[in-house]
Amino acid sequence: MKRVTEWLMSFRNFRTRLLAWYFLLAVSTTGMATWVTRQIYCDRLYEQAEAALAEEIGRFQQAAAPLTTQQPTEAEITTLFDQMLTAYVPAEDEWVITFIDGEFYRASGPMPDWLARDPDLVTRWASLETPQQHRLEGPDRNIVYAAEPLMIGDDVRGTFVAVEDKTIAYQSGTTAIRLVLKVSVAVLGSFFVIAWVTAGRLLRPLHLMNRTARQITESDMSQRIPLQGKDEITAVAATFNDMLDRLQNAFDGQQEFLKDVSHELRTPITVIQGQLETLAYRPEKQPETIALITNELQQMNRLVNDLLLLTKAERPDFLILKPEDLDWLTEELYLKSRSLTADRDWRLEAKGLYPATLDRQRFSQAVMNLVQNALRHTQPGDTIALGSAVDGDYLRFWVRDTGEGIASADQARIFERFARATNNNQPFEGAGLGLAIVSAIVEAHGGRIELTSELGHGATFTLILPLEPAVYPSETPQYESHSDRRRQPTHR
Known about the structure:
Shape: rod-shaped
Radius of gyration: 51 Å
Distance between the termini: 89 Å
Number of helices: 12
CATH superfamily of the largest domain: Histidine kinase-like ATPase, C-terminal domain
Largest sheet: 5 strands, antiparallel
CATH architecture of the largest domain: 2-Layer Sandwich
Helix content: 40-55%
Number of domains: 3
Strand order of the largest sheet: 2-1-5-4-3
Structural class: alpha+beta
């Protein structure tokens, strides 16, 4: 009973069901083809026998034609049948049987056993009044005969019967066909077993996919399907792994976002709570307290907006790409930077003359974050320079300052969330997300950031972006392509 249950459960398996249906279809097709082959073989066998019998009947009719126009004697009829029997050379399974005036006369050979067991058939032949051709089919015989009465006027004077026994030929043919059917079914069964094993190997990635999906939890999303081969199922497994990567990145980003928010909001919430408690016993401090609370709320709002921007940077619709004139954009950002303060030595070092495809708003935000960073690390009179250029297929936009510089140990860390340089002694308002936002925007464009800096010798941040970002079809943001403008200089 247990084995039956296991078999029924395995039949519910997709692989078993699929192959079982294919096996049934193949067996049905083979069976139908075998039946059609048997029918064709039998029909051809009977047609050949009937054609031979018709030829023999034709010879008898030709020989008997002179007697049908007169009143022949019994001796003449006997002579006719003797001539036919003498001229006929039967095969092992062929006979000619003659009757005269309703009585058996002679046969071309010994009467077969099946005819001795069927006296009614002999009686019908002896009294036959019309020509007859018939098949006698049974479990142990397959006979074809043609009977021709000898009509003299309206009287039947004799009967000429030609018989072919096709039992052996029929049984041999059908036995061979059944053997072919059995061999075909056995071969199909072998193919089914081989296909079942092969399908198990081919569908193994699907089983791994199912097992991997079951093992994934909120605390462990590291499971992946091992890839082997280059077939369609491997492609599905690779796509599944890519989906898991995206889910893990999204989940990790969500967890990091929640952790960062809870960490960074703890201080302003504590400050606001303390100030509100102060109002209970020092109402005269209400204006100062309200101003301080308002400032903390503004910082909290700015922090949340920055974190949301970093989270959105991983979404496909984060960028709206359009061709932009690089020289105009560079000058616009330079003028916007100069308006922040007049106590720095602002310089515009170069302007690229080729159009670049980018998100103008996001790119401007990244550059202005670099400018704000330069302002925090420079003193009045220090130089802050902006510039852009085209190098091959890439746009280079830099912000250079002559401020305090960045230590080598901090140069990779400062692009992380909430990170600050260890040599930063300036009072700083903010959560340390500015450079992280710059990095996210540049990476969304398919670019990178180069940083050159030494302590006491300033820093140069260079944004390197492709002139035409390569975006996958499934991740295509709103995009306007003007490739014919890509390398055409912009003149004002």
